[in-house]
């Protein structure tokens, strides 16, 4: 009887000891390997970890501010090449002119000198030509010496060269052979006169037309305009030659005009930190005017942005990181490159793939587990 009671007491003590050992050991500890943390199934920490997928969305339309300007490929600024006095002005701002049409008449002594030089060169050429013919004939009959023949040939060549030079100069100025000193300032293209800065009787001198001086006339084709825009660095992916833009002006809030990007500057303005963008716009209906302020938008339907909740990203040691949910209790820390923050989400440009789950709640717990533990001696 006593042996049975003693055996029962020993058995009960053994069972109690085993229960105490199990309670002392507790749940299994997570496994930490480099940048990864793996939890055993049923670990209580898993209940505090929440993950969400990284998703793609269409890129938002970029909005740029700018202004309209004359299309410089269809614009000319006209300066007089000769000094003189304005005698008559043939056109006014707003007039449409044809290529070669006279804009103003200038009385120019410089043109008179060019006309006189051409007339004199023509007379000297005729005289040299006659002299060469006479000396050649005499030389053939042995009357004139070879030296005289060669001299006549040289004189004729000089006279011919001078004639060509003076005629080319006169042709460049557009003056006639008659010495009238009347220079016609003409339009080199078809368009509309948009600026005029001369008056009758005004004295003009080419040496006074330095940098910044207004042109006598500005002629352009207003059916073609430039859109000059200021873009930021984040807009660069949208700003490519050939890209179509939607342009809006305050004067026509319900209308959208199309423009095509023609050129993007290769540098940033150091003062404004913006990039100059130039686009071309068809203004054949003549609704838009130069120097109007515009707002241009570009929406690239093919562009996608990968985003995750902003709370999934944390800063550590000079970089941004997330914890990727590898499944089956595994989590790996990854370095990411981020973009803009919008509506509680943050754009990810590198480090995460679409559909990848990242930890949104509990990232701090995982980060603490990756910290090296100090050994107390």
Strand content: 35-45%
**CATH class (first level) name of the domain at 31-59 and 304-370:** Mainly Beta
Number of helices: 4
Topology pattern, helix = H, strand = E: HEEEEEEEEEHHEEEEEEEEEEEEEEEH
Helix content: 10-25%
Low-confidence spans: pLDDT under 50, at least 5 residues?
20-24
Distance between the termini: 53 Å
Backbone structural class:
alpha+beta
Q: What's the CATH topology label of the domain at 31-59 and 304-370? A: conserved putative lor/sdh protein from methanococcus maripaludis s2 fold
Spatial shape: elongated
Structural description of this entry:
Helices cover 24% and strands 37% of the residues. With 377 residues, it is an alpha+beta fold. Among the domains are: 31-59 and 304-370, conserved putative lor/sdh protein from methanococcus maripaludis s2 fold (Beta Barrel), CATH 2.40.420; 63-73 and 223-298, Elongation Factor Tu (Ef-tu), domain 3; 110-178, Helix Hairpins, CATH 1.10.287.470. Strands 1, 2, 4, 19, 20, 21, 22 and 23 form an eight-stranded antiparallel beta sheet that branches. A hairpin with a 2-residue loop joins β1 (31-33) and β2. α2 packs antiparallel against α3. The longest helix is centred in the first third of the chain and has 32 residues, at 109-140.
Task: Please give the structural blueprint.
Layout: H1 2-25, E1 31-33, E2 36-38, E3 50-53, E4 55-58, E5 62-70, E6 75-78, E7 84-89, E8 96-97, E9 102-107, H2 109-140, H3 146-173, E10 182-186, E11 191-196, E12 203-204, E13 217-220, E14 224-231, E15 244-249, E16 252-264, E17 275-282, E18 293-298, E19 304-309, E20 314-316, E21 319-327, E22 330-342, E23 345-350, E24 357-361, H4 363-370
Antiparallel strand pairs: 1-2, 2-22, 3-24, 4-19, 5-14, 5-18, 6-13, 7-9, 7-12, 8-11, 9-10, 11-13, 14-17, 15-16, 15-18, 16-17, 19-23, 20-21, 21-22, 22-23
Helix pairs in contact: 2-3
């Amino acid at each position: 009887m006593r042996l049975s009671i003693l055996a029962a007491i020993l058995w009960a003590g053994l069972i109690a000891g085993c229960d105490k050992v199990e309670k002392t050991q507790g749940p299994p500890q997570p496994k930490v390997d480099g940048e990864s943390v793996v939890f055993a199934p049923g670990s209580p920490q898993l209940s505090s970890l929440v993950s969400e997928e990284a998703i793609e969305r269409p890129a938002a339309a970029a909005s740029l501010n700018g202004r309209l300007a004359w299309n410089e490929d269809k614009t000319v600024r006209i300066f007089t090449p000769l000094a003189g006095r304005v005698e008559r002005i043939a056109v006014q701002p707003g007039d449409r002119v044809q290529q070669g049409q006279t804009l103003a008449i200038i009385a120019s002594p410089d043109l008179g000198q060019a006309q006189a030089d051409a007339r004199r060169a023509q007379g000297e050429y005729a005289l040299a030509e006659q002299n060469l013919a006479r000396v050649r004939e005499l030389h053939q009959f042995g009357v004139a010496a070879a030296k005289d023949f060669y001299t006549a040939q040289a004189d004729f060549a000089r006279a011919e060269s001078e004639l060509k030079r003076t005629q080319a100069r006169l042709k460049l100025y557009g003056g006639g052979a008659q010495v009238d000193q009347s220079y016609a300032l003409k339009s080199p293209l078809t368009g509309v006169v948009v600026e005029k800065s001369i008056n009758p009787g005004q004295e003009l001198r080419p040496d006074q037309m330095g940098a910044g001086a207004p042109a006598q006339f500005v002629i352009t084709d207003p059916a073609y305009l430039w859109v000059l825009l200021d873009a930021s660095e984040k807009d660069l992916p949208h700003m490519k030659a050939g890209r179509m833009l939607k342009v809006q002006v305050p004067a026509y809030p319900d209308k959208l005009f199309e423009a095509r990007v023609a050129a993007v500057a290769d540098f940033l303005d150091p003062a404004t930190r913006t990039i100059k963008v130039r686009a071309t716009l068809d203004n054949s209906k003549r609704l838009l005017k130069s120097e109007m302020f515009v707002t241009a938008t570009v929406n690239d339907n093919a562009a996608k942005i990968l985003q995750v909740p902003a709370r999934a990203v944390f800063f550590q040691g000079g970089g941004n990181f997330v914890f990727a949910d590898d499944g089956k209790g595994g989590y790996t820390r990854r370095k990411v490159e981020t973009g803009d923050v919008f509506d509680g989400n943050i754009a990810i440009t590198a480090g995460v793939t679409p559909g990848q789950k990242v930890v949104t709640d509990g990232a701090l717990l995982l980060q603490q587990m990756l910290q090296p533990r100090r050994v107390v001696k």
